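pasting for the record
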Amino acid sequence: MNSKPAKSASSEREATALNGWMMLIVNLALLFGAMAWFIWIVAQTGRTDNHPHLWWLAPALLTDITAVVLLCGHFTLQPNEARVLILFGAYKGTVRTSGFWWANPFYSRIRAKIPVPSGGSTTSAAHMTRSAKISLRAQNFNSDKLKVNDKRGNPVEIAAVIVWRVEDTARAAFDVDDYESYVHIQSEAAIRHIASLYAYDRSDEPEPTLRESADEVAAALKKELQERLEKTGVAVEEARLTHLAYAPEIAQAMLRRQQAEAVIAARQKIVHGAVSMVDMALRELAEKAVVKLDDERKASMVSNLLVVLCGEAEVTPVINTGTLYS
């Protein structure tokens, strides 16, 4: 059984272009020279009535047309901008240097025709042509708020900002239909996948979470994006979460859970501190021989101190004028 060969990825190669100002002088000289030649032939024919001079009109006209065509080969590039040179469907290279340049006027000025759905239907599609120029500047993509399930299955809302730029113009131009749309779709897919690998918040076991491990999550998101966008020649410079929250349907329940966990943690700290203070008080009373306490009096003292130290309301002292046994 014959299998289809895998399609090889495109690879950018540098192309050379001629100085635009020098070629502009040459092309204008050729244009005006051909026009002067044409006028001279017409004038010479009228003056001498020598009709054989008319045979020279064709070369003069052809030279004039050639000069006009050559003038179409001029183009400009701004800093951090490149132009892909395509000659009758064949990739000839990329010009990355900014300035005023001249190249073969038959190099295509459009890169592809991309179907654009119109009227909400995918069957009726218009076509949008893309320029052969590609921006090399860093670009931001702010994703929409996506509703996904985290590692524990809790629905969360998440969004991220992706900073990216085109690194290989040949891959961006020829390996995908529209590299910008590809970046947007794959970025959202990567965000969804990363969100499913981490829990929103920490549980009893120590583990990285979306809320607490921002740097680790950002590094994982950047790595996954770079793997997904490798075929487009796009380099991911930074990826960060910009929004993270529980979905509205569980937000109130999770808020109550967080409040309960906070109360428990606070109570644990208060009790730990109170026990330490009671132990310190009993130990110092015994060491300094302030008073001798039997087990029953120690238990009563511990109970009173814990009530005072752990109680939320203000404590009103009661003075006992008798003894503990009366």
